[in-house]
Amino acid sequence: MKRNEWSARLHGLVIFRGLLADPVVKKLLALTEGPAAVEGLADRAAEFEAALFETTPNWSKYLAGAVLESENICVRRWAHGQHPPLLEETLRAELDFLQRLCGLSLDELLAELPEEDRAALAFLPRWETSPTELAAAYLQRLGEVGRKGYGMFAKHHVFTVDEGCLVPVKYPDPQRLSELPGYEKEREKVIANTKALLAGMPANNVLLYGDAGTGKSSAVKAIANEYASEGLRLVEVKKNQLYQIPDLMDSLAANPLKFILFIDDLSFTANDDNFAALKAILEGSVGGRAKNIAVYATSNRRHLIKETLTDRTGDDIHEADTRQELMSLSARFGLTITFQRPEKARFEAILTELARQYGVQMPLDQLIVKAEAFAIRAGGRSPRVARQFIEQCKAGVQK
After folding, report:
1. What is the DSSP letter of 300?
2. Which residues form the AAA+ ATPase domain (predicted)?
3. C-alpha 349 chain-centroid distance
4. N or C: which end of the chain has fewer CB within 10 A?
């Protein structure tokens, strides 16, 4: 094909129209357009290669990756078992074109130029291409969309919320379950609930509450990392963003992946507007709860509401009803897991395992004595304190 034909085919994409917003594809499109003057072609070719080489010198690999991760009407419908014949025909035609585009070289783009112009552009570097089976790879990806996702959900598995929109976390906490000793029994229930969510079975909203530093947040993050390859995604939500969540949940409900909405360090004052918002999210709204979403929250408070003695001795005529209202929020979590401060034996077991993980060489009795002294200064035993002590030992601060 000639340059103008490549341009027309790119502009005519329907299923994969989102590719035209890709920064590298944009540069390629510019290269296929415009006048054929040597100076302009050199400039546009250099801009395309500069953008491509930021990621890889191989154009085939770049474009194949962009196609496989593309969010489009087909991938959304295929996830729900909808295969309209017209869309299927259009999909195959565009995949055939994109397969050809994967093999496009600079020499092929310049082939229509006079020989002297081609010679003038011989100094330009030639990007790499390689054989690809794009159609087969994409159709396989469609069958795996419930585990691998599409668009940004294929590239990332942890997200935050900014003005009601999901923002990927490029460098999430790499915590793994195997790195969290001491609370395996507590985590078993959370893991079982997460597996039920992934299997499409009824799953509970989960409240992890207990003493500070016992690994509640780390457990949720580690579970998200552990099951990301099976289609689990984590969305961290701040308490003051709860009013934005209903619209977000509506958009996620149509996604084939499974989502944990994670609210860390949750607590409310009695007059907090976010209190009612979370109640509605958990179960109290007129819309049914999405089967692919569960709320996991951590808190140092069992009943989530900060109460004072004045609250209990005030002039409320229906004080019992008011207290019932305040306690109703925690009751909406179907599964409540308690993380208590570790007793001496558990603290020692955590220390021993962390010392092994970090490669700390110190006699066990000496390690325990120093760790207990460190814990007293830090305000008491906890897995967080144990890790801080071991990290200081590894760094040579504790000797």
Report:
1. S
2. 202-323
3. 32
4. C
